[in-house]
């Protein structure tokens, strides 16, 4: 059993580049990005807005074709979206005309699962996430946190190899966000599924991930890859630990540099003064 | 011996409350009134306004007011009511009404059956849109009434041409609104369905169609209104039966109270059919509570 899980959900993005055609010729959105997700690993991508982290995610989902490079999942090239790669969207994207249960059952219905097993699976998943009382409600009557719980459960219901999350908690308030992070971690640990998580929230990335990729400003490229050695299960209190804070400082300065670049070169020198950070005795440059 | 009454229940303090205290009906009535006060207010004001309208009509016609417009020949509400009671026992009047309803039913249903799928296909497939859109855009501004001579040439019987006019009247509002609905479908929902394994047919059935339904129903409601407009015009021009013909015939036969009766009848039928569609919409779209 554990053997199967170990080999499932290996994502490999190699020398990925994507550019959009414009009148001035191809405009690169992402260049030369290589990332990988080991089976069962939780990996985040952080970067300033517009750096192409969502582009990368959408390429793994199969919505965008790479201009150069390759995207493979378990050795197979990604060719269009599929239920193998479940996705959680920032805007929840629940079907308003389906009840909570209908939304969760959707993917299984597409797989032509019979009604009884669909029903059973949906109820189990809704039970785990505390949504049983809302199974017959329409999404419009749910709070943001509930909607996104449904979004996560819906994506997991088809048993995907990889879960792709596009800033899923970006629209939630701080308290709900923390709870949702716990729920997602719990689900991930139960199912041992690979996760690719895109966010601009550094705390979120560190708290959730095994590894974090940091992207540069547009055109996006991978600037750094940082392992998060915090032990699991992770507790809220860890966010105050010196280890966490050190990781946070490191990532923060990486991102800040890129955000400033994205906003315009002239202010970057000024703002970067005095930003030399030590991490576990390594200098900032070593981490990069 | 007198005991102080409990503030909440109104029962003497100290008496054991029954297992399930029967709640007074008036409490429910009061709460219901409080919850529905807005709606009740609207109904009340509406009824008063309607009453005032009838009163004004009554006064203007009994005193045969001439003030820019002439009420000398306009029938009074009482005369129209008399016409109505007479008409209710007249099988011919009922036949007029039923025939008009049948024409609406056939013309409108055909329009919905053609325009909705066409709109869905045009919204989904670019080539179909690019091909048909210019044609529909040229035909759309032509009022259904302007089609009457052409319809008479096209169709062998009068009945068919009138149904055709009704069809045309409702066709374009339904098509345009369906197209509009399709253009507003959230692409993220389409992507969400693809990530859950949906393919073309499923995406169409599970995403595009339900997402467009509110607009389709707007189109049906508007289309129903235009269908009545077109039908009445067509009946007045080329009909031998139908409520539009009845109204026109009443004018020719100098039966003025029947004119008003015909008009009111058209109003009530139009209102009824729109209400029917709205109710159907609510039934089909339980998520769309507004």
TrEMBL record, chain A:
Residues 11-242 form the ABC transporter domain. PROSITE patterns: ABC_TRANSPORTER_1 (PS00211), ABC_TRANSPORTER_2 (PS50893). The keyword Signal does not apply. It comes from the Bacteria. Pfam families: ABC_tran. The keyword ATP-binding applies. CDD domains: ABC_NrtD_SsuB_transporters (cd03293). One of its GO terms (molecular function) is ATP hydrolysis activity. InterPro entries: AAA+_ATPase, ABC_transporter-like_ATP-bd, ABC_transporter-like_CS, ABC_transporter_ATP-bind, P-loop_NTPase. Involved in beta-(1-->2)glucan export. Transmembrane domains (TMD) form a pore in the inner membrane and the ATP-binding domain (NBD) is responsible for energy generation. Belongs to the ABC transporter superfamily. This is NitT/TauT family transport system ATP-binding protein. It comes from Rhodopseudomonas rhenobacensis.
UniProtKB/TrEMBL annotation, chain B:
The keyword Transcription does not apply. One of its GO terms (cellular component) is plasma membrane. Pfam families: BPD_transp_1 (PF00528). This is NitT/TauT family transport system permease protein. The keyword Membrane applies. Residues 97-277 form the ABC transmembrane type-1 domain. It is found in: Cell membrane. Belongs to the binding-protein-dependent transport system permease family. Keywords: Cell membrane, Membrane, Transmembrane, Transmembrane helix, Transport. The chain crosses the membrane at residues 39-60, 104-125, 137-155, 161-179, 216-239, 259-280.
